[in-house]
Amino acid sequence: MVNIVDQNRIGKSAMLLLLVDREEEEWNREFNELNWSYCTGKIGSMDSQKVVAAIETAAKRSGLVRGDLYREMHSLYHAIMEALSGVTRGQTQLGEVLRTVGLRFSIVRGTPYINEEEGEWIAVALYGTIGAPIKGLEHETIGLGINHI
């Protein structure tokens, strides 16, 4: 087994979680070695608010962020919005303009810098499809957001 999680690339690691098929045990081993944490999930919606809410809920339930700490939720929100902006090509509207998404997401929290004073960072990666709300009229899309905590 080759380690593919790069200790200095939190965004790359978040994307690999979505794009590389591996056993969860392998991911756990690599992220544990770095003392990083992560979670993954899926969301399909015509409402960008539901996408944000699903990712925030997953992050809180998995213990990646604390809902009672503003700085953690604020950082997560900005990472989500940056990733969503990539998925939607800068226009975060979905249902209002007759678009729907089917996405897998990953969230990674860790310390990608050698200097410990740089602190923790969070990355949100999205991969899936976007298009008209008609089966078969969608195409692939991808987005990544990274923010400091």
UniProtKB/TrEMBL annotation:
InterPro entries: Regulatory_HutP, Regulatory_HutP_bacillales, Regulatory_HutP_sf
Manganese is among the record's keywords: no
Pfam families linked: HutP
Keywords: Activator, Histidine metabolism, RNA-binding, Transcription, Transcription regulation
Family: Belongs to the HutP family.
NCBIfam families, per the entry: PRK03065.1
Assembly information from the UniProt record: Homohexamer.
Alphabetized HAMAP family for the sequence: HutP
Known function: Antiterminator that binds to cis-acting regulatory sequences on the mRNA in the presence of histidine, thereby suppressing transcription termination and activating the hut operon for histidine utilization.
Annotated protein name in UniProt: Hut operon positive regulatory protein
Organism: Bacillus seohaeanensis
Designated gene of the protein: hutP
